[in-house]
Amino acid sequence: MATIQLRTAVPGPRSLALWERRKAAVARGLTTLHPVFLERGEGAVVTDVDGNRLLDFTGGIGALNVGHARPEIAKAVSDQVARLTHTAIQVTGYEPYVALAEKLCAIAPVAGPRKAFLVTTGTEAVENAVKLSKVATGRPGVICFEHAFHGRSLGALSFTSRARPYKFGMGPFLPEVYRLPYPTFYRQGLTPEVALEQAKARLAEFFRTVVAPEQVACLIIEPVLGEGGFLVPPPGYLEFLREETQKHGIALVIDSILAARSARWRVRRPSVLNSGACAHSGWPITSHSRMNVRSLAAPIVMNPSSQRNAW
Fold first, then answer.
1. How much is the average pLDDT of 70-77?
2. What percent of the chain has pLDDT above 90?
3. Less Cβ crowding at N or C end of the chain, within 10 Å?
4. Which of 178, 152, 154 is nearest to 166 (CA)?
5. Is the pTM of this model over 0.70?
């Protein structure tokens, strides 16, 4: 049997009917690219409400490494919710949260003591990483990069570099946010070696003319640009940033929500490592692991309103 099977036009009549119901009931701010409604999925194959079988090239926007309805994941989720559905970790603990934190710390590409913190979304991980850096350093400034995507809550949106559609009409944004060009040697037509030297000189000039390093709490960067075009910096750039941030007492935040574990091989010893997307197989959980950032004076600063489950 062929994998792709079309029983109706796409979108079919049932999808079109659901599209009309959606327009009447769902806020306009939530966009959907295709007027197709899915009913079930298995692996990389999905079936819509009209019975059309399609290949899923989106994977929940990079969130389904192992595909739809993976049997062992479905069983683990079913078993857990039958035992315990939700407690909120800041009220009472449970073993799976600790076990997952231990696993994340074991694989995080950092040296020395590591601790993990679980949240629902990448934007929460970014905002908590910045909060942690500000409290730890006592400094106000944040350096981010052009073409970056760090989330769409108001704080993370201050670091995201996309005026439309994300930021238009949403300001004012956070103060003390400074932006560097991302060293995309591919688009600049440069060799990686030349791009690296230019980027090093640019950061030195940036610290002289834009913001003093003593005013910077953290520098946040994607090891691979996501919405900026899936571009990588020249080899050695992230290691250079690690050296420069350590020299000036700046926290280096590696935001690998979209890039997943590629950060593991591109930089060592970040201050904070955000991870998520394909690491959670479609379930709402994101993490950040940290090291070399001193303990918070007031731990409550990182408590969300309703803490995430670890299953």
1. 90
2. 50
3. N
4. 152
5. yes
Mean pLDDT (whole number) for 39-60: 94
Helices 192-209 and 237-248: angle between axes, nearest 10 degrees: 20
pLDDT (0 to 100) of residue 86: 84
Provide the greatest CA pair distance for the chain: 65
Say which residue, 30 or 176, is predicted with more confidence: 176
The 3-class SS string of the chain reads CCCCECCCCCCCHHHHHHHHHHHHHCCCCCCCCCCCCEEEEEECEEEECCCCEEECCCHHHHCCCCCECCHHHHHHHHHHHHHCCCCCCCCCCCHHHHHHHHHHHHHCCCCCCCEEEEECCHHHHHHHHHHHHHHHHCCCEEEEECCCCCCCCHHHHCCCCCHHHHHCCCCCCCCCEEEECCCCHHHHCCCHHHHHHHHHHHHHHHHHHCCCHHHEEEEEECCCCCCCCCCCCCCCHHHHHHHHHHHHCCEEEEEECCCCCHHHHHCCCCCEEEECHHHCCCCCCEEEEECCCCCCCCHHHHCCCCCCCCC
Burial of 149 (0-12, 13-18, 19+ CB in 10 A): buried
- Residue-wise pLDDT for 224-234, tens only, equals 888 888 888 99
- What is the average pLDDT across 279-297? 50
**pLDDT, averaged across the chain:** 84
b/e code 244-281 from CB counts within 10 Å (16+ = b): bbeeeebbbbbbbbbbbeebbebbebbbbbbbbbbbbb
